UniProtKB/TrEMBL annotation:
Residues 6-353 form the Isopropylmalate dehydrogenase-like domain. The lineage of its organism: Bacteria, Bacillati, Bacillota, Bacilli, Bacillales. Pfam families: Iso_dh. The gene is leuB. SUPFAM superfamilies: Isocitrate/Isopropylmalate dehydrogenase-like. PANTHER family: 3-ISOPROPYLMALATE DEHYDROGENASE (PTHR42979). Substrate binds at residues 98, 108, 136, 224. Its cofactor is Mn(2+); Mg(2+). It comes from Paenibacillus sediminis. Mg(2+) binds at residues 224, 248, 252. This is 3-isopropylmalate dehydrogenase. The record marks 143, 192 as: Important for catalysis.
Length: 357
């Protein structure tokens, strides 16, 4: 009998519930077609949890996530909570959940769908065949180092410190090598080893573990050069691994290759197979509740979950192929439509993808 996989579902705020509903339909469809079995459990997180439970990350939510094999998250936040004190902000909940679940890497695939090449600002011939994934370290580096002000010789100074230890670098680098092994076997390690000590350590660790992955072709790329090459030869990248701040910047740059934020999936991973999967976009309060949201980012995040946490490559392939098929047939939500008057709704898009699986 097929094992039942448990998925904690966090619909969240804004368009979160709308896009998650479509992803759940897709999950049900993969049960029918492939015989897999998923038990979903909805739990409160973010703004809605602040309103109903007085905290963005209630204990019971964390317990549901910890007892699950994976988490599917819509989006959290919105103007209603933006001016709350720190502990009552949805974003505080996001940092808390990553930490509590030990999620130290963030993966963002950037795939250019042939039929959407025109939606990008780059030339179609440059984009052709682009299918890359950015693996960003999520819990170290300058974002988490000591920050302070002090009086300097010429007045006030500000200091941010960037710290990485060998273990932190090694675990994410190994993860990236393993991801590359399952793809086109190319890894670009991005650093600034010509000036930064943390980058020199990063490069040492990469070079030390690389011989254990002899089938993966490794290149070291300086971050400024990588920013340029992403626009010049995006299709030559397979897996890019980098530290927190470089990854933050490069993953947004890579995202823009594909045209719309409504198309981009992400995964946050720790040790083992557990992962949290969510669209790259936010809660989009400006379009919430109107059926305008593109559910594809969340549906592709679900495909990523099936592939990476559960190893259900057949179902993941089928979902990705269904998305491509529906787009090829010309169906568009308004964010990716050239002629907005012909745009379809969130549920119409979801139903078409379900039917194509
Ligand atoms: P956050 O801080 O949570 O990232 P944000 O306001 O910075 O939120 P988004 O919520 O992602 O960013 O919204 C940015 C813009 O993209 C908005 O105009 C929004 O309507 C649009 N957008 C975001 N997601 C989608 C989607 N799935 N479909 C269509 N449009 C979207
Ligand atoms: Mg934002």
């Amino acid at each position: 009998m097929t094992e039942v996989k448990k998925i904690a579902v966090i619909a969240g705020d804004g368009i979160g519930p709308e896009v998650v509903a479509e992803a759940e339909k897709v999950l049900r469809r993969t049960e029918e077609v492939f015989g897999y079995r998923f038990k979903t459990e909805h739990t409160l997180f973010g703004g809605i949890a602040i309103d109903q439970k007085g905290t963005p990350l209630p204990e019971e939510t964390l317990a549901v996530c910890k007892s699950a094999d994976a988490v599917l998250l819509g989006a959290v936040g919105g103007p209603k909570w933006d001016n709350n004190p720190k502990e009552l902000r949805p974003e505080t909940g996001l940092l808390g959940i990553r930490k509590a679940l030990g999620l130290f890497s963030n993966l963002r695939p950037a795939v250019v769908f042939d039929c959407l090449k025109d939606a990008s600002t780059l030339k179609p011939e440059v984009l052709e065949g682009t299918d890359l994934i950015v693996v960003r370290e999520l819990t170290g580096g300058i974002y988490f180092g000591d920050k302070f002000r002090r009086d300097g010789i010429q007045g006030q100074e500000a200091v941010d410190t960037c710290v990485y230890n060998v273990a932190e670098v090694e675990r994410i680098v190994r993860q990236a090598f393993e991801i590359a092994q399952k793809r086109r076997k190319k890894l670009a390690s991005v650093d600034k080893a010509n000036v930064l000590e943390t980058s020199r350590l990063w490069r040492e660790v990469v070079n030390r573990v690389a011989p254990e992955y002899p089938d993966v072709e490794l290149e070291h790329v300086l971050v400024d050069n990588c920013a340029m090459q992403l626009l010049r030869r995006p299709s030559s990248f397979d897996v890019i691994v980098t530290e927190n701040m470089f990854g933050d910047i490069l993953s947004d740059e890579a995202a823009m290759l594909t045209g719309s934020i409504g198309m981009l999936a992400s995964a946050s991973l720790g040790e083992g197979s557990f992962g949290l999967y969510e669209p790259v976009h936010g809660s989009a309060p400006d379009i919430a509740g109107q059926g305008l949201a593109n559910p594809i980012a969340t549906i592709l995040s679900t495909a990523l979950m099936l592939r990476m946490t559960f190893g259900y490559a057949d179902a993941a392939d089928a979902i990705e192929a269904a998305v491509a098929e529906v787009l090829d047939a010309g169906h568009r939500t308004s964010d990716i439509a050239v002629d907005k008057s012909k745009a379809i709704s969130t549920t119409e898009m979801g139903n078409l993808i379900v039917a194509a699986i």
